[in-house]
Design a protein that fits this description.
The protein has helices at about 30-35, 50-55, 60-70, 95-105, 120-130, 145-150, 190-205, 210-215, 220-225, 225-245, 265-275, 280-295, 305-315, 330-340, 365-380; strands spanning about 15-20, 40-50, 75, 80-85, 115-120, 140-145, 160, 165-170, 175-180, 345-350, 355-360. It has about 400 residues and is α/β, with parallel strands linked by helices. It has 2 domains: about 15-185, Rossmann fold (3-Layer(aba) Sandwich); about 190-395, Dehydroquinate synthase-like, alpha domain. The strands form 3 sheets. Strands 1, 2, 3, 4, 5, 6 and 9 form a 7-stranded parallel sheet that branches. The longest helix is centred in the middle third of the chain and has 21 residues, at about 225-245. It is globular. The chain starts with 15 loop residues before the first strand and ends in a 19-residue tail after the last helix. It binds nicotinamide-adenine-dinucleotide (NAD) and zinc ion.
């Protein structure tokens, strides 16, 4: 019998809106997103991050009123559900199971919607539930943290942690739409605000020298969370992530290289061994500092670039060091990263600010020296005492 070959392609397309006060009664954006899906009204269930609800208990009432006002296009099914915020939502299958049960109990069909409002963790967990119930229900994401608005919420992945591994269980499933409402950020704790800036530094470092200069020149405003530069940063960072996913040739990460994971091989491990005491953005900041040091140590970038990178991270208030680094299992972390990506080891290193290269080998002895150097960076990161970080006192970006 001749072999048959199946072949088809699917064109994905979803909008990412930047908005404010999305549940104001007469605001049209969300209603228009539902309307775009055709015959209405559309049934939907809503899941909200507990951190958001604690700061804004009136949100549920506003969602109910908004839904009533737009009853011709949307119909809320079941009570709005509060989901424990942060990594707790991804720690086991509780949230995923709840979403799946909701889909059954409230008879949501594949034309219905799940609306996920929250940080990257809640969106990942609720999104995974939506992706597997009926093999996929339309998902509208409303990210409420900086990191979720500029990175986690605009991509195509979802998932939960499992068997002690970050994001071990999950799927690739593009959302129906994403609404980044900047007003949510008003209640975000400073530590979470800062953590989201880390991913912007990452994507600038690997892709966009101009964006890096923007971050460097606006570092004082960003460190103070001034809304103008923060919103510009979120928009540019989201655009870079989206363009990488949409035009990078590997949206579902079938290859081994994953440049958006610059600094992440050690970051994932640090998140695991600190049991979440380091959040994602903080761990990524340390991971980037480490891989920048390594890039310099093997001659890919110069000392000046290294200083600029470390001083930017430090002046944004991001960590360059954590006591858990002493427990970093180099081979174990690199091995776990390779396994997660599949295929050969592929680590992204810098060849300059805004340019990168993949390497398939890491010299453990050199990496260990870089770890040692990081220890020295921690105390004097902002000051003149450490020669690595003296650029921190320079006004504009050193050319
Ligand atoms: N799917 C992806 O492509 C992708 C990409 C990057 C990161 N992630 C995941 O995202 C997660 C990190 O997301 P995060 O940085 O958004 O943190 P998070 O979701 O862990 O939230 C951090 C804290 O902020 C609270 N919070 C959220 N919004 C708030 C608001 N508006 N006001 C007050 N408190 C609020 C939460 O309750 C939580 O306590 C990690 O699990 C990471 O693996 C996923
Ligand atoms: Zn990340």
């Amino acid at each position: 019998m001749p072999t048959l070959e199946q072949r088809f392609s699917i064109h994905y397309r979803f909008p990412v809106f930047f908005h404010r006060n999305v549940f104001r009664c007469h605001d049209e954006l969300l209603a228009s997103v539902f309307a775009r899906a055709g015959t209405s009204p559309h049934r939907f269930s809503c899941f909200i991050d507990s951190g958001v609800l604690e700061e804004d208990p009136g949100l549920i009432r506003r969602i109910e009123e908004y839904t009533q006002h737009n009853s011709q296009v949307m119909q809320l099914c079941g009570p709005v559900t509060r989901v424990e915020g942060g990594e707790a939502s991804k720690a086991d299958s509780t949230v995923v199971d709840r979403v799946v049960e909701y889909v059954k109990d409230y008879r949501l069909c594949r034309h219905s919607f799940v609306l996920a409002i929250g940080g990257g963790a809640v969106i990942d967990a609720v999104g995974y539930g939506a992706a597997i119930a009926h093999r996929g229900i339309r998902l509208i994401r409303m990210p409420t943290t900086v990191l979720a608005q500029n990175d986690a919420g605009v991509g195509v992945k979802n998932g939960i942690n499992g068997l002690g591994r970050k994001n071990f269980i999950g799927t690739f499933a593009p959302p129906f739409a994403v609404i980044n409402d900047f007003d949510f950020l008003a209640t975000l704790p400073p530590r979470e605000m800062r953590s989201g800036i880390s991913e912007a530094v990452k994507v600038a470092l690997i892709k966009d020298d101009d964006f890096f200069t923007y971050l460097y020149d606006n570092r004082a405003e960003l460190a103070a969370f001034k809304s103008g530069p923060m919103e510009e940063m979120i928009h540019r960072c989201a655009a870079l992530h989206m363009s990488h996913i949409g035009s990078g040739g590997d949206p579902f990460e079938l290859g081994s290289a994953r440049p958006l994971d610059f600094g992440h091989w050690s970051a994932h491990h640090l998140e695991e061994i600190t049991d979440g005491r380091l959040n994602h953005g903080e761990a990524v900041s340390i991971g980037m500092a480490l891989d920048s040091l390594y890039s310099q140590a093997i001659g890919l970038i110069g000392e000046e670039d290294l200083r600029t990178i470390l001083s930017l991270l430090a002046q944004l208030g991001l960590p360059l060091w954590h006591s858990s680094l002493a427990r970093l299992d180099l081979e174990g972390a690199l091995g776990a990263f390779q396994e997660h990506l599949g295929g050969d080891l592929a680590i992204t290193l810098l060849t300059g600010i805004g340019s990168k290269k993949e390497v398939n080998y890491i010299d453990s002895a050199i990496m260990r020296e870089c770890l040692e150097k990081l220890v020295h960076c921690r105390h004097e990161a902002l000051g003149a005492a450490d020669p690595l970080t003296t650029a921190a006192t320079v006004e504009g970006r050193p050319q």
